[in-house]
Amino acid sequence: MKLAHPSRPVASSRIFPDAAALRQWSFPLFGRRLTLPMLVFGLALLLCLTPWGSPPLALALGLVVALIFGNPFPAQSRQYTSKLLQYSVVGLGFGMNAQQALQAGREGILFTVASIFGTLVLGFLVGRWLKIDRKTAHLISCGTAICGGSAIAAVGPVVKAEESQMSVALGTVFVLNSVALFLFPAVGHWLQMTQNQFGLWCAIAIHDTSSVVGAASHYGDQALQIATTVKLARALWIIPVSLGTALLFKTPGTKLKLPYFILGFVGAMLLNTYVPALHPLAPFIVTVAKLGLTVTLFLIGAGLSARVLRSVGVRPFVQGVLLWAVISTVSLWVILHAVA
Question: For this UniProt entry, which segments traverse the membrane (predicted)?
Answer without folding.
Answer: 34-52, 108-127, 139-159, 165-186, 198-220, 232-249, 258-275, 281-309, 321-339
